[in-house]
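Bumping my old thread because nobody answered last time. Still need a sequence for this structure:
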C-alpha cells in the first residue's frame, strides 16, 4: 500500500502541483472549506435523505442509488458516535447497528465484518431507543454531550425525526438488508481505508455496493495523488490498451488492507461476498454507487468486476451509478471501458454538476468514462457518451456547494428532467451511445 507517512510520498503529489496552483486563485476558499469543514458538508449530505420522502422520482434507479449513497454517510456517522462514546454512556442495544463484536455470528454471508445484518428497522429502532444521546444539528447528527454521565437524562436529545420517518418509509418500500458494512479503519489517520457497504434489495432484485466519499484526511491525500499505476487486477485484462489508473484510488481498492489474517484486498473481499449473493440470488443485478471519492471507486470497481478473471462468474452487466466522480484513468483505461460497454459487460451512468471541479480532476492525462448526465442550475440535463469537460469550464468560487449531493439531487430530480431520468439504464444506453 501507499506509505503516506513516508516523506517520499511527496513525489506522488508532484504531478498535481500545477493543477493545484491553477485552482487556488479561483477556488481556494472552496477547497479549504471542503478540507477543513467536511463534517459540515457531511451533515448537509445526511440531511438530503430526509427530504426524499415526497420525491416522485424516489423509485428510479438513479434516485435509489443516490439515496443509498446518502444513507452511507449517515450510518457511518451514527456508528462512529457509538464507537467514540461507548465508554461515556450505555447505549441501548448498540448491536442493532454495530454488530462486529457480538459473540454469535448470525450473518448468513461469510467474509463479512457484520455478525448480524442491518435493516432500516434496526437503524430506526436504535435511534428511537437512544434519542437522548443524539442531537440533530444543521442537518446532521451528533452526540448529545449533555447526556454524558447522566443516566437520568430523559428526552433532552433531539434525534433526527425526519430521518426516522424516512427510515420507516425505506423499510416499507424495500425488502432489503445491509449484509456488510466495512468501516473498520475509517478513522485511523493516515492508515485509514475506504468505507463501503453491500445491500441486498429483494424488492428490486438488486445487490448494491456503496462507497462513502471523502471525509478523512487520508481520503483527501488519496484524492490528490495524481500519478498512475497498473495494478495486477487491472493489468490482466487491459494489456491491449495499456490502461493505467489513479494510484490513490488503485491502492484504496487493490492494496493490502490492515486486516489480520490473509491480507485480502478490498476488491477480493467484495468479490467473495458478491459471489455468495449471486449464488443465492442468481437473477439479481449488481450495482455499484458512490459520491465523490466514492464515485471514483464506483467506476473503478465496476470496471474491475466487468473485466477481471476473479469476478468472471458474476452476472453481467455490472451497473455503475456515480455522482461527482473524479477522473480515474488514462486514455487506455477509457478505451477498455468502452470495449467492455460495447460487449455488454459494463454500464456506467456518471452524473456531474456544472461548477463541480472534482469531476474534471485530475486534469492532466486522465479521462472520464461512461454515459454522462450533466446537470446545471435552471437547465435541462445534458446527456452524452464519454462526454468530458475542460478544467477551466468548471472553475468557480462555490466548489463545496456544487460538489454536494443536495445540489445534485435538486438539479437532477425535477420535473423538466422527467423524460430523461425516467428511462432505465439500458434505454439510456440505447439512445445515447
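Sorry it took so long. Here it is:
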Amino acid at each position: 500500500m501507499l506509505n503516506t507517512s513516508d516523506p517520499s510520498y511527496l513525489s506522488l503529489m508532484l504531478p498535481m502541483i500545477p493543477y493545484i496552483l491553477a485552482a487556488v486563485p479561483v477556488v481556494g476558499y472552496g477547497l479549504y472549506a471542503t478540507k477543513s469543514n467536511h463534517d459540515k458538508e457531511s451533515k448537509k449530505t445526511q440531511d438530503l435523505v430526509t427530504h426524499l420522502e415526497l420525491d416522485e422520482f424516489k423509485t428510479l434507479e438513479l434516485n435509489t442509488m443516490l439515496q443509498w449513497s446518502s444513507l452511507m454517510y449517515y450510518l457511518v456517522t451514527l456508528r462512529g458516535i457509538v464507537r467514540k462514546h461507548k465508554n461515556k454512556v450505555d447505549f441501548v442495544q448498540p448491536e442493532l447497528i454495530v454488530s462486529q463484536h457480538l459473540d454469535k455470528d448470525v450473518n448468513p454471508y461469510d467474509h463479512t465484518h457484520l455478525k448480524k445484518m442491518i435493516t432500516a428497522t434496526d437503524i430506526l429502532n436504535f435511534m428511537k431507543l437512544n434519542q437522548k444521546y443524539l442531537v440533530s444539528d444543521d442537518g446532521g447528527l451528533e452526540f448529545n454531550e449533555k447526556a454524558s454521565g447522566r443516566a437520568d437524562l430523559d428526552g433532552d436529545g433531539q434525534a433526527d425525526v425526519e430521518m426516522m420517518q424516512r427510515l420507516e418509509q425505506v423499510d416499507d418500500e424495500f425488502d432489503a438488508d445491509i449484509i456488510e458494512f466495512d468501516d473498520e479503519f475509517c478513522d485511523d489517520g493516515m492508515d485509514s481505508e475506504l468505507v463501503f457497504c453491500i445491500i441486498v434489495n429483494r424488492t428490486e432484485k438488486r445487490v448494491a455496493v456503496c462507497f462513502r466519499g471523502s471525509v478523512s484526511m487520508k481520503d483527501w491525500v488519496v484524492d490528490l495523488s495524481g500519478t498512475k499505476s497498473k495494478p495486477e487486477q487491472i493489468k490482466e485484462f487491459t494489456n491491449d490498451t495499456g490502461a493505467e489508473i489513479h494510484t490513490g484510488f488503485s491502492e484504496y481498492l487493490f492494496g493490502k488492507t490492515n486486516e489480520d489474517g490473509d491480507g485480502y484486498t478490498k476488491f477480493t473481499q467484495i468479490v467473495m461476498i458478491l459471489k455468495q449473493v449471486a449464488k443465492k440470488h442468481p437473477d439479481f443485478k449488481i450495482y455499484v454507487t458512490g459520491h465523490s471519492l466514492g464515485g471514483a471507486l464506483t467506476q473503478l470497481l465496476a470496471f474491475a468486476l466487468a473485466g477481471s478473471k476473479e469476478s468472471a462468474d458474476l452476472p453481467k452487466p455490472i451497473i455503475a451509478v456515480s455522482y461527482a466522480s473524479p477522473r480515474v484513468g488514462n486514455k487506455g483505461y477509457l478505451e477498455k471501458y468502452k470495449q467492455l460497454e460495447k460487449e455488454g459487460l459494463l454500464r456506467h451512468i456518471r452524473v456531474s454538476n456544472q461548477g463541480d471541479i472534482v469531476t474534471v480532476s485530475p486534469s492532466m492525462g486522465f479521462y472520464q468514462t461512461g454515459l454522462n448526465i450533466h446537470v446545471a442550475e435552471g437547465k435541462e440535463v445534458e446527456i452524452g457518451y464519454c462526454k468530458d469537460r475542460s478544467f477551466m469550464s468548471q472553475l468557480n468560487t462555490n466548489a463545496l456547494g456544487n460538489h454536494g449531493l443536495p445540489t445534485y439531487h435538486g438539479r437532477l430530480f425535477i420535473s423538466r428532467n422527467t423524460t430523461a431520468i425516467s428511462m432505465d439504464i439500458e434505454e439510456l444506453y440505447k439512445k445515447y451511445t
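Residues 111 and 335 are 34 Å apart (CA to CA). Let me know if any region looks off to you.
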